[in-house]
Amino acid sequence: MKLFLDTAEIDDIAALNSTGLIDGVTTNPSLIAKSGRDMVETIAEISGMVDGPVSAEVTATDSDEMLAEGRKLAAIAENIAVKVPLTPSGLATCKALADDGIMVNVTLCFSPAQALLAAKAGARFISPFIGRLDDLGRDGMGLIADIVTIYANYDYPTEVLVASVRGVQHVVDAALIGADVATVPPSVIHAMYKHPMTDKGLEAFLSDWAKTGQSIL
Ligand code: E4P
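Above: the input record for the complex with erythose-4-phosphate. Below: its predicted structure, written as tokens.
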């Protein structure tokens, strides 16, 4: 499964990108606002730093303006995936951009029916928001399972990009279902490294090693 970073914070992206474990980045207007930086500059910086897809979201709501924004964002770098909302205008924009060979990430997906439309519109990625569904007491991971099944039934090439991830278990459950990508905040990546038994085991190994008085180097 690919792991994308869900942030617009350059320092976090630089630090985690250097691990070689990160396959791409997703941003949205809220994350850009939180960074306090200029969007186009930030996206250009991120796309120059990361080899994989970098999602940059349009902010217009009508098709013509959305398409113009999408083309401007796509021109920033070859690895830009233009992010459009799952609305009629968003899907029309998706179709137009995809027909031009531009990667499109259709975002704000909350149902299997929406995901089916996005695949038919040529989306490279569909972003179902599982955490926001869980917040409402709904089954976010059930949505991922449904979309994975529907796409497999018809061999749709659209990748299921699990979004609105709240913790490590979301990543694990998404991987068990076979989702293509999970986009996760930096804090979740850091949490994925951790297990108390790893810390405890290492402490014991190092304590025993110290008693030997040996040194490898
Ligand atoms: C990613 O593409 C989404 O914009 C993001 O995962 C949304 O996450 P949130 O529900 O935590 O805002």
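Notes for the reader.
Residues 145 and 177 are 6 Å apart (CA to CA).
The longest strand covers residues 103-109.
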